[in-house]
Amino acid sequence: VQLQASGGGLVRPRGSLRLSCTASGSTFSISQMGWYRQTPGHQRELVAVTTSGGHPNYADSVNGRFILSSDNDDNTVHLIMNGLKFEDTAVYYCIAHDFRLGADYWGRGTQVTVSS
Fold first, then answer.
1. Which of 17, 12, 39, 27 is nearest to 93 (CA)?
2. Which of 34, 64, 89, 90 is the most exposed place for a label (fewest CB within 10 A)?
3. What's 63's DSSP letter?
4. Which of these, 14, 15, 10, lies nearest to 111 by C-alpha position?
5. Strand order in the sheet with 66-71
6. DSSP letter for each residue of 1-44
7. Alpha carbon 3 to chain centroid distance?
8. Distance between CA atoms of 101 and 7, rounded to whole angstroms?
9. What is the pLDDT of residues 68-80, one digit of tens each?
10. In the structure, what pLDDT confidence band is assigned to residue 53 with cuts at 50, 70 and 90?
């Protein structure tokens, strides 16, 4: 499985950005996709991930500001980030979980910088 991420960049506080991630290859057993983020000196943390119940799971810090949408036909997820804050600055990583193999696949990180 390969993950191709796009989006990110520099945005002012309270601005918006969209990240997209598309999975390709052996995707038939991909059950979840989403995003994590990481800042220097910290562990990678969950941002948002799809669930089997249909409602994405969001980190408390982004709930109500970020929206994760998925297009199962294209194996793509979009993370719409609204009301961005300085503390949202991080490298964002796309993740895909293969339920059959019990494996996680990671995309290359994409930088999101919130700065005035």
1. 39
2. 64
3. B
4. 10
5. 2-7, 17-24, 76-81, 66-71
6. -EEEEEE-EEE-TT--EEEEEEEESS-TTEEEEEEEEE-TTS--
7. 11
8. 29
9. 999 878 899 999 9
10. confident
